[in-house]
Amino acid sequence: MVQFYLLSVILNIVAGYALVSSGTEPKGTKFDGIREFLKDGTIRLVLGILCTTVGFFKLLTVMRGDIPVIGDFVPSLAGMAVGFTMLLEFYRSNSNVTTQALEKLDTIFVANRRIVGIVGMVSGFVHFLFANVLFL
After folding, report:
1. Short-list 37, 48, 31, 61, CA closest to 117
2. Burial class (CB in 10 A: 0-12, 13-18, 19+), 27
3. Which pairs count as long-range contacts for 20-28, CB under 8 Å and 24+ apart, including other chains?
4. pLDDT in tens, 58-69
5. Residue 39, φ and ψ in degrees, nearest 5
6. Helix %, strand %, coil % for the chain, to 5?
7. pLDDT tens digits, one per residue of 19-41
8. CB neighbourhood size of 44 (10 A)
9. Cβ atoms within 10 A of the Cβ of 94, count?
10. pLDDT tens over the chain, length 136 residues
């Protein structure tokens, strides 16, 4: 569906940028307001939920003439990874409970959030530019 395609592209780019820019300092540019907006915990929670949900539904629904599941595999996985990273960050900042599995997920996703964000942004841009390419 075209709606999930558009949501996938926009959410991958915005949430990827939120992950990449989360640890940066203000530089006096026009993007400082956007960075501050994307640092808000509620905005990050909503972005995480939306990215994960759209990434999952992107596996199930495809554009007309595209191959199911495989057609949008990379943007779907990138969206789910970016969304899961944002949800895990939110959970870690609001919870005191730690388990060994949670620590392992934290070292995989949250410690590498810049890489996950870059992958999300790149997959969003490439998915926008090359709509009917297999895996993209």
Report:
1. 48
2. exposed
3. 20/113, 20/114, 20/117, 20/118, 20/121, 22/113, 23/114
4. 888 776 666 665
5. -85, -10
6. 70, 0, 30
7. 998 877 777 788 788 888 988 99
8. 21
9. 9
10. 688 889 999 999 999 999 998 877 777 788 788 888 988 999 999 999 999 999 998 888 776 666 665 667 888 999 999 999 999 999 999 988 888 999 999 999 988 999 999 999 999 998 888 876 765 5
Tokens of 41: 């915990």
pTM: 0.87
- What whole-number distance in Å separates Cα of residue 26 and Cα of residue 29? 8
CA–CA separation, 66 and 112 (whole Å): 32
